[in-house]
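During the second half of the funding period, the structural biology subgroup turned its attention to how the target accommodates small molecules. The most pressing case was (2S)-2-hydroxybutanedioic acid, which had performed well in the primary screen but for which no bound structure existed. We therefore specified the complex as follows and requested a full 3D prediction, including the ligand pose.
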Amino acid sequence: MRTAMLRSVLKRSSSNLMNSTTSAYGVRRGFASESAPERKVAVLGAAGGIGQPLALLMKLNPLVSKLALYDIAGTPGVAADVSHINTRSEVVGFMGEEQLGQALEGSDVVIIPAGVPRKPGMTRDDLFNINAGIVKSLCTAIAKYCPHALVNMISNPVNSTVPIASEVFKKAGTYDEKKLFGVTTLDVVRAKTFYAGKAKVNVAEVNVPVVGGHAGITILPLFSQATPKANLPDEDIKALTKRTQDGGTEVVEAKAGKGSATLSMAYAGAIFADACLKGLNGVPDVVECSFVQSSVTELPFFASKVRLGKNGVEEVLGLGPLSDYEKEGLEALKPELKSSIEKGIKFANQS
Ligand SMILES: NC(=O)c1ccc[n+]([C@@H]2O[C@H](COP(=O)([O-])OP(=O)(O)OC[C@H]3O[C@@H](n4cnc5c(N)ncnc54)[C@H](O)[C@@H]3O)[C@@H](O)[C@H]2O)c1
Ligand SMILES: O=C(O)C[C@H](O)C(=O)O
């Protein structure tokens, strides 16, 4: 009885997530078919708090034919465990630097949740000193072993790790701005959840773009564009904006020293990787918010809605009409975002 129930829940959740008709941002799109092309996905940091549930969710994705799970330790166990799930992909674990090349070779999408998470009282930028080096070395290997893969950067501070990756790829001569993504999907997931709760609308129907970056005030949810429309008072919009900006900190404090968001991040990471795979496979109208190279503002990287296609970014979409409150938020976030981007670029070029 319990097994039958569990099976039905898993069947429903995997088909919701993977054959879904809506993205995290909410755009309708096609179903995975039995004849989906071969696609290899590598997860770097796969034995971690995000890595493990993300490995599980990618194993449930019928668009994946090979799943490479890489970490500096612990991946044989995670890979053995996940590999017993009776879905399409073949799962292989790789451990230690000497196996990184094999993990990456042939990858279509590389997801990077490798690096340390925050503890209470820390900002994402406090992770820079450790995570910048990790990201730099992983991206050096990506440039060597799978230079054409789409890179989904989860490691914080995203506002700096994405610029680091771009510089590493430029130095290696492999940079393609269409293929590098900072994963900001969790901000969209949170904005949708919080908005639905406040507006008392069905969360499954909610769309909210979130633009800017992925840290504090650089996270700018555009509730004026949220649908279904709810005409919430200004104080509710301000409270929703603040809660979305502080969503990561809310989890860090609740976990009280045991790390940051892992399960909701794995969900968000799986949604974004699924969108990348659908784009690669030629599914039309796949749109997600992501932190990418951009000319939407004067900043070289910026998160906004992005249309995904066979080569990665097909189109970086503009911001659309903003409320006065959002216009103020946009101006206020630029100095911090600019300095985080510059910090990443400087690090990549001096070390
Ligand atoms: N973008 C987002 O929205 C978002 C959300 C949540 C967390 N994060 C970030 O994701 C990162 C990981 O968080 P977590 O909770 O999974 O941390 P974690 O400590 O639980 O796991 C990190 C994993 O990375 C591995 N790792 C370390 N160095 C590595 C290397 N050189 N190569 C491969 N793997 C390596 C560790 O062994 C560990 O298994 C953090 O930087 C965190 O801030 C980002
Ligand atoms: O808040 C963090 O440090 C992790 C992540 O960026 C999040 O938004 O949950």
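Two results from this model are relevant to the next phase. Residues 183-338 form a domain with the L-2-Hydroxyisocaproate Dehydrogenase; Chain A, domain 2 fold (CATH 3.90.110.10). The radius of gyration is 19 Å.
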